[in-house]
Structures are given as structure tokens and as C-alpha cells.
Amino acid sequence: MAETSNAQHVLKSQANWDALYFYQKSDVIYQLAFAFCDRFIHLYKDRTRDQVIQAARSCKQNIVEGLADCVASTEMQLKLLNVARASLKELREDFEDYIKSRHLQFFISGEPRYADMLNYCRYHNRLSDYEPFFAQWTDEQMCNYAITLCHFIDRMMMSFLKKLEQEFITEGGIKERMHRARTGYRQQQDERLKQLETELPRLKQSLAEAQAEAAKWKAAFENLKQRALKMYYGKEEEIKRLKEQLGEEI
Predict the structure, then answer these.
(1) I need a labelling partner for 51 at 20 to 30 A (CA). Which of 30, 33, 157, 206 fits?
(2) What is the mean pLDDT of residues 23-29?
């Protein structure tokens, strides 16, 4: 049957978020934010510390939750990934405010340090690529690298969201998939029932022909059996008679 191959799936495959570059960079940005706050923002005197860490964590965790929820709900996935983007924008704003309020400098296009930073952030995604610098960079460097990473993550997530949006438009959400799966299953059952109902008369005819053939062979067997028995008993009588004659002569 083609039922298995044509089945509509309700649940989608879960994405391996650890393999996605924007998740890898979000892990970097969270650890960078934590190290930055630990080095440069006072534990008790500045509430920005908690906001920065929570915004970075919210970005990373909502990516994970959104990609996990895609199994059942594309709609929830889109919402959670947008929450992650909102947290990312909040985080970027905090780093930009830090530079402005401390009268530090933004790395700008045309500067060698800007080109180096851009290339590094573009081609390096894992925490192990950045962690050795967390204790070496100045607060200005950490802020600029964090801002650049935020831009990369945001662009990558937007591309991913556009792909999900197209999937949602063409495939719908879980309710649509459930309806298609149920409708497809019922259609398959209806088609199978029609097929069986069409085949049943032919099978009945084949059965009747087989039964008639079996009856014919049974009659032939019985006839052969009776002839064999008749010959056997005839020979047995002849043997008995010959023995009796031989006995009389002796």
C-alpha cells in the first residue's frame, strides 16, 4: 500500500540549533555579556548589569525554545524567535549606551580595527573562538565586538524568519497540518475501501471457479479410488480362489 509513503506528517523535525550560526553567535554574545558585566559593571551600583545579562540570556534561550517548539507550532516558533530578536536589540542598545555614556569610541568603517573586527565576527561563531579574549579586551573593544555580533545575529535570524514565514504560508500551522493529515488518511481509507469493493466480485468468481475445479478433481479422485478398490478386491478374490483349488488338489 502507498499509505505510508503518502502520509501527511503533523509534527515537524526539530532543528539542531547548535549547528545554526546565529545560535552559536548568541551563545558567544551571552558569555561575552556576562564577562563584560563581571569586569566593567558594578555588581550592586548599576542595574544595567542585570538588564544586559538577562537580555543576552533571553536572546539565546528564546532561540532554543523557538526551535524546539517548531516540532508542533510554526506560529509559536516565529513568535519566540521574534522575542529573541527584541532581546537582542535591547542588548545592542545597552552596549551602545555604555559607549556613549563613557565617551568611548565606536569602531567605524575605514579603520583597520573595524575591518579586523568585522572579518573575525563574520567567520567565527563558536565560544571557543572568543573566550580567550574576554579577559584581554578593553570595555571599548568588548562593546564594539558585542554590537557587531548583535548585527550579524539579527541579519541571520531575519533570513531564517523569512524562510519560516514562507513555510508557514505554504504549509500552514499545526491545525492545517492536522486537518491535511486526517483528511489524507480518510481519503486513503476511502480509496482502499473502493478498491476492495471493486475487487470483491472478481475474487468471489475466482473462488467459485476454484471450488468447481476442486469438486471436479474430488469426483475424479473418488472414481479412481473406487476403480482401484474394485481391482484390488477382485484380485484378492482370485488369489483366495486359487489357494483353495491348490489345497484341494493336495
Answers:
(1) 157
(2) 97
